[in-house]
Amino acid sequence: MKSISYDLNGGLLTHNLQSNEMTYVVSLLDSEAADDALFDLFDLYDLGISFNIEMETNHENQDLSVKYQVDQGYLPLSFIKDGLTLEQKLDISLGIIDISRFFEKNSQFVLALDPVNILFHKEEKQVRILYVGIRGIMPIAKEHEGLVNDQVKKFFESLFQYTDRIFKSLPPHEQMANIQLRQSIENAKNLDELESLLRKEQEGLPNRMERLIKWQKEEEERKKQERKKAVRKKAIQKKHSLSKEDVIKIVNNYRKRKLRLNIMLGVIAIIVGVTSFFLSQKYLFPTNQMDQQMEDNLKKGKDLAALQKYEEAVQHFNKIKLTNLGKEDTQIILTSYLNAKQPQKIIELEPSLTNDIINFYIKIKDFDTIKKLKPQHPIIQFEQAIIKQDEKTVISLKDQVPLDDRRKMMIAFAMLAENDLKKALGFAKEQKQQALEETLSNIEKNDFGKAYEYVNKQSSKFLTRIMKERELDYIRKSTLADSEKKKKAEPILKEIEKLKKD
């Protein structure tokens, strides 16, 4: 393969793998106004945003061809993303923030944060982008139309999202750190907040690396001991394997001893019963013995968590108190409850983590676990209302929960379901949700095709059901013949009923 091509923002980006040249071809929206505006793209190299370029415009078919002279050492993120370390991801993120500030100040340019459009130099820790659009001159894809901050957050969410296999292979404290980082990114209001939290992550890397190396060594030692135990167990089983004659002899001896054994068992039961009574008395249970039991349960739980036996681990963690534990042990315990699908315990121990826990299960689409939570917190009540498709409760809780883009969308559609489109549009505008506002405007115009494009990306039964109901209402009020109305309405009704039951 000599070259590879990608669709990017209405044009075609071609990467020559032999020469490392990259060329972008796009049809201009306004070729007459293009010449002066396109000249500004040459300055992006000096600003450290892009590369040196050569441009050619074909005024007959309004095509623009941009050839990028990619500096040596820069590789597209799409090639190297899977092999990036956390340190490199943080370097890339901080570089993206620096670049994004330019686009916030110069809104005539269009930022396209796509892995094929972002290039990273590992040695120099530098980030640059290829294609930069110009409003009114080049086409703009929907995902690049909104606020720069929203696009940056979406890109970071993808960058720091591990595959399920890699996430489960991480030590518990790293799993929790990753969940908290992605949640902090989602909650960040602007580029300054994003930069601040990423720099804190960067500062904490040396300590995290020490903990990770320590955990890896302990993990290797545990596996080594497990292998030794398995070998010893196999040797013992072989040594003590019984012949047919041995088995017959043991059975005969057992019959002779059966009566005597029954008497002994009765005595043991009495002894155990009396001992249990005395041991249950707190004044006979020395403090150091209680501390030792807590340490034993903590160690056993941590060992099991390291082996990803989370359900067994939490059985030991249930027997200890978190009040005097260090941060690392606390994270291991909380992450074990998370992986054992016992979020209720985490919420009871650390109520401040409620939003993080709920968002974790939303991201992995485990709504059954959210359903089972005790509705003690507005966030839980809100998410359970979405699962139950209870629009009134969703709207009533809108001022009591932290609002991310997803929740804003759910609230606006709940308002739509309550036949208050005007209120839904006002809410979307107030929250600066441009894509949501545009979707609601399409619904207002009965342009359901465009509206479904947006809704289908969300994979939400709540949103889809509201859309179907809106479409059904439109069909019923239309001037179509009754037979045609029935024909169009029946499949939609079936889908609505199915969405309500699921």
From TrEMBL:
Q: Which UniProt keywords apply?
A: Membrane, Transmembrane, Transmembrane helix
Source organism's superkingdom? Bacteria
Q: Which residues cross the membrane?
A: 259-279
By what name is this protein known?
A: Type VII secretion protein EssB
